[in-house]
Each structure stands twice: as structure tokens, then as C-alpha cells.
Inverse folding.
């Protein structure tokens, strides 16, 4: 019987540090955005597992493309890893299909070098027929678990179902590993018994226990997983319109559950968010509101859902579009007469980074055919 008068056992900082270091060791490599320049200059490798990343931006800034590139990276890197795609609107799955086909085709066409005497010759890997890429893409899409939701309780339910699925899969894998370890230990014990013919039942059990504990297969972990909520502003914004306090409370409760699952399972969680405070008309590009988050004076938007939401996530990424050159900016902001259209580029900014030093970093990109991120040509 528990004695309520006894103090709770102390939780040592060394224990917490050891647990955090263990999670870091098990954490997979970050997910690439599909563009090396963007990964290197702003994202420091990509989207990190074990963290909640919010990607905000206005329509047409490329936030969905950026997130779907991360999904493609996850499906390609992890042969068994699943993606829980929680959609609050119609998801562009055809776009994800095209992104996967493009990435898989690029992998097959990547050049490789072989040594011929003292010279390295560049060879192009032709790969298999197109049906091989199609079958790979199909198998990857089968690991995307789509949930259509229309309110925040639906989001919470979808997160709970995915967490329960991970728990069940872990239990199944653990039983499989324990069975393998037992069979291996039993074989070891029988071999030693035949060699020495002097082992007791107690010694056999000890041998099995020691061998199972030392079995590397016992350290088998779940495949990496990913959660994407697109778009969280659709379900939270409507609640906050009716009652700000109730909407904030529901959002905080949902985010606590999501944070627990993300940290405990080393899940890469990405939330697609909208933008607020956008300028309604062209203004001088040096004008700027005092409460804007971007380092660029012409970017007057900021992530939606308010400042409170930024405290519930680990990393905040903001996407915007800017004129490519000074001439384009003069046309865009009515400084120069409009002779023709102007060229825009996408900009990715790290507004917040709780666990590393990426805050304030940024990079630029252009899109190609709506399915690929490319560096700005010189």
C-alpha cells in the first residue's frame, strides 16, 4: 500500500540528461527539403525528428511544396516509416505523387564516378524502366495514412489513433525480438550443454537471460514516423473566432498531446499554418509595421494563430515572396512605371528555434513546375 506521507523520489538532472542523450542517439537524420542550398543555409540539414515544426506563409509562397518535399524525403529514407497526413481540406495527393516520381527519377539519374587507371570517369546511372519507379512510388504512397478532419477534436482523435498504432507496432516488434533472442539463447544453451554436459536448469535460465539482454536485436526500434497537419489554421482559427479563450485552451491541450508523442517516439511533426497581417496593397518596400516578424522590410506578414502558438512549437518557419532584383522591386511597389511583369523568388526564414541556433537564418529559392525547389540561377 502506498504511503502518501513519503516524499516522491527525486528526479535527478543526470537522469534527464542521460534520457535526452539516448533519444539524440536514436534520432534519425533530418529530412531534406529537396534543395541542398536551403538545407545548408537555413534549415541546418532539414526538418528534425523529435521536434514540432510550423511552416507558415500566405497562399502561393511554396509552404505546401516545402512540406511535401519533406514527406518525400521521409518516405525515401525510411523503407518502413509511415506518414500520418491529417488534412483539414482536400490534400493535393497528385502533387505528392509527382514529387515522389521526380525525386525517384533524380536518384536513378544521379551521376557516379568509377576509377579507370589513374582517371575518374563520370558515368550516368540509367536505372530500371519507368515501371520500376512507378512501383516504388506506389509502395511509398501506401505508407501515407490520410485522415480527413473538420475540427480540432478530429485532429486530436487522429493523433491519438496514430499514437495507438505506434504503440501496437512497438509491442509486436518487441515480442518478435524477444522470441528471436530466446531462440538464439536456447540454441546457445543447448550447445554449451552438449559440450560440457554440466549445466543446471538455473544456469540455463541465467544464460538465456544474459544472452537476450546482450542480443543487439533487442535494441530494434520502430521505424521513423512523421505527422503532418495541413492546415492547422483552418480548424483553430474558426474556434478562436467564436471564443478566443476556449480556442487557446483547446489548442494548448492538443499541442501537449502532440508534443508528448513527438518527443517520446522521435516523430518528425510538421504543422502547416497560414499567414496574418498581410499588406492589402503595394507599398514602398522600406515601409514596415512594428509587429512584423520578418527581417525583410517588404514582408509584412507573420504566422497566424497569434504569439501564444509560437510557445507551443519548437521551430517556426515563415515563407514569403520577394522581388528578385531592385528593378523588380521598383515595379512591384509602384516606384517605377510598369513596363512588364516582375520576377519573384521565395524566401524561407527561421523565426524561432528552441533547440539550436538557426533563428534568424534564411535562404531563397524558385519553384519549377510546382513540384521542385531550385536555387536561384546566377
Amino acid at each position: 500500500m502506498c504511503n502518501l506521507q513519503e516524499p516522491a523520489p527525486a528526479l535527478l538532472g543526470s537522469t534527464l540528461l542521460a534520457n535526452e542523450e539516448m533519444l539524440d542517439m536514436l534520432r534519425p537524420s533530418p529530412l531534406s527539403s529537396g534543395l541542398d542550398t536551403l538545407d545548408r543555409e537555413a534549415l541546418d540539414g532539414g526538418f528534425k525528428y523529435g521536434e514540432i515544426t510550423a511552416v507558415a506563409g500566405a497562399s502561393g509562397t511554396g509552404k505546401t511544396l516545402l512540406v511535401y518535399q519533406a514527406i518525400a524525403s521521409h518516405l525515401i529514407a525510411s523503407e518502413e516509416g509511415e506518414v500520418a497526413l491529417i488534412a483539414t481540406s482536400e490534400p493535393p495527393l497528385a502533387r505528392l505523387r509527382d514529387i515522389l516520381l521526380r525525386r525517384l527519377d533524380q536518384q536513378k539519374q544521379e551521376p557516379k564516378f568509377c576509377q579507370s587507371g589513374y582517371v575518374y570517369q563520370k558515368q550516368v546511372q540509367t536505372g530500371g524502366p519507368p515501371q520500376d519507379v512507378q512501383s516504388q512510388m506506389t509502395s511509398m504512397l501506401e505508407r501515407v495514412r490520410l485522415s480527413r478532419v473538420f475540427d480540432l477534436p478530429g485532429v486530436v482523435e487522429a493523433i491519438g489513433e496514430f499514437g495507438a498504432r505506434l504503440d501496437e507496432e512497438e509491442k509486436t516488434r518487441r515480442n518478435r525480438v524477444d522470441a528471436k533472442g530466446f531462440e538464439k539463447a536456447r540454441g546457445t544453451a543447448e550447445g554449451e550443454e552438449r559440450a560440457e554436459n554440466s549445466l543446471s536448469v538455473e544456469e540455463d535460465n541465467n544464460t538465456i537471460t544474459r544472452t537476450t539482454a546482450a542480443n543487439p536485436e533487442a535494441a530494434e526500434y520502430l521505424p521513423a514516423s512523421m505527422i503532418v497537419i495541413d492546415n492547422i489554421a483552418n480548424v483553430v482559427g474558426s474556434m478562436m473566432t467564436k471564443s478566443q479563450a476556449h480556442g487557446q485552451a483547446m489548442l494548448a491541450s492538443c499541442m501537449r498531446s502532440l508534443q508528448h508523442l513527438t518527443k517520446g517516439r522521435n516523430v518528425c511533426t510538421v504543422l502547416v499554418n497560414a499567414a496574418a497581417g498581410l499588406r492589402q496593397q503595394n507599398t514602398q518596400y522600406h515601409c514596415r509595421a512594428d509587429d512584423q516578424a520578418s527581417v525583410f522590410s517588404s514582408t509584412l506578414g507573420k504566422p497566424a494563430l497569434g504569439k501564444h502558438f509560437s510557445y507551443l512549437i519548437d521551430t517556426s518557419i515563415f515563407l514569403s515572396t520577394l522581388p528578385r532584383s531592385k528593378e523588380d522591386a521598383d515595379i512591384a511597389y509602384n516606384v517605377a512605371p510598369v513596363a512588364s511583369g516582375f520576377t519573384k523568388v521565395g524566401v524561407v526564414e527561421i523565426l524561432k528555434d528552441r533547440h539550436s541556433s538557426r533563428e534568424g537564418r534564411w535562404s531563397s529559392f524558385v519553384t519549377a513546375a510546382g513540384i521542385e525547389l531550385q536555387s536561384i540561377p546566377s
